[in-house]
Design a protein that fits this description.
The chain has about 110 residues and is α+β, with helices and mostly antiparallel strands. Helices cover about 35% and strands about 15% of the residues. Strands 1-2 form a two-stranded antiparallel sheet. A two-stranded antiparallel sheet has the order 3-4.
Length: about 110
């Protein structure tokens, strides 16, 4: 990480923790070594700051190589995690909606 620039959100108090996170992620995903190192740092800094997991079982984010760059996509569980942390929502229900569902305005629910 000598020639790479850390994003501003990784301040001095977080550098060691982020470095450990970076090294562990790099060990677990060999494909990261073939990508632009600065894009890897930027992407990992984003998910480090959001405190979302790149564990495929949790499915909060997906790391997506696009050409030589690494990108992050926040998945449904990641948005739900961020929503729960915001304390702006008291309760929510998760439903699978298909093209056969119609939203009933009176009941405020999706129905077949």
């Amino acid at each position: 990480m000598a020639n790479l620039t850390l994003p501003k959100n990784i301040n001095k108090s977080k550098i060691q923790q982020f470095t450990n996170y970076y090294e562990l992620t790099k060990l677990n995903d060999k494909k990261l070594s073939t990508l632009n190192p600065q894009s890897v740092i930027n992407t990992l800094a984003t998910i480090f700051e959001l405190d979302l997991s790149n564990n495929p079982i949790k499915k909060e984010i997906a790391l997506i190589p696009y050409g030589n760059e690494l990108q992050v996509q926040i998945q449904e569980d990641g948005f739900l995690t961020l929503l729960q942390r915001s304390n702006c929502v008291i309760d929510f229900q998760r439903e699978i909606i298909t093209d056969k569902h119609i939203f009933n305005k009176e009941t405020q629910r999706w129905e077949l």
